[in-house]
From TrEMBL:
UniProt name for this protein: C2H2-type domain-containing protein
Keyword DNA-binding in record: yes
Keyword Ion transport listed: no
The species this protein was found in: Sphaeramia orbicularis
Gene Ontology molecular-function annotations: DNA binding; identical protein binding; zinc ion binding
Domain C2H2-type positions: 10-37, 39-66, 67-94, 95-122, 123-150, 151-178, 179-206, 207-234, 235-262
Amino acid sequence: MRSHTGVKPYTCDICNKSFPRPGALRRHQKIHNKPASRVPCEVCGKSLASVHVLEVHRRIHTGEKPFECQLCGRAFRQVGGLYRHMRSHSGEKPFSCSVCNKSFPWKQDLTRHMKYHSEEKPFSCSVCQKRFIIHNDMMTHMRSHTGEKPFKCLVCGKMFTRKFQMQEHARVHTGDKTFKCEFCEKLFLRRSLLVVHRRIHTGEKPFKCSFCGKQFSQCASLNTHTKIHTGEKPHSCSVCGQSFIQRSNLVTHMTRHEKGSKKFTKKTQHRSILHQGK
């Protein structure tokens, strides 16, 4: 089917050229094993394996990105980058975990995921001693202590802890909805919204109440439900002190005070007019 879809998930780690099948990649890699003279980059002096590799490398210096996604307009220096990007639109996930069968669109995601099956956590937070499997996870966690938000929206200046948060936020300004439901074709600004929406079609309810076993499609729904068991009512009325599990119930309750206040004001004004008439 990849001959029809154009998907090429197997990439040469030397020149980044992509192929639809592993056999084609192996045959290609033999080219690099042959003795050949290296070609230097005239800008930075780096020695490259061939003229073709040099042409691709030059784009780092020129900023040229000739391969553009026809769906969202994102551009890439290499065709392999475009093919890998297209999986974010098609939903193809050719790399599967041998332990839990979870699938991923990119090989580096699978490599990262495999580490979570290992019990080893070599990276430790110097503030709270929480341990992590991945070094980048630990560095991101450190921002919860420092308050650092290094990723800035170029439109409104809002700052974010993680790059993907900033990228998703940017779509609020552009209105770009690149995440498409494969069931009903509805479009979404963020992948996370698409993931939640899919559960309408699949019936998946991954969040289970530890008290009664009831299951929910969203974590927020589970959190609200759990308060029924714990008796927690975090939303309090500033007028009468009555508390509620959900904020929406508090908002509805507050309208009663507002209506009562308006009636009181009208009665007071009416009495004042009558008094003035005497």
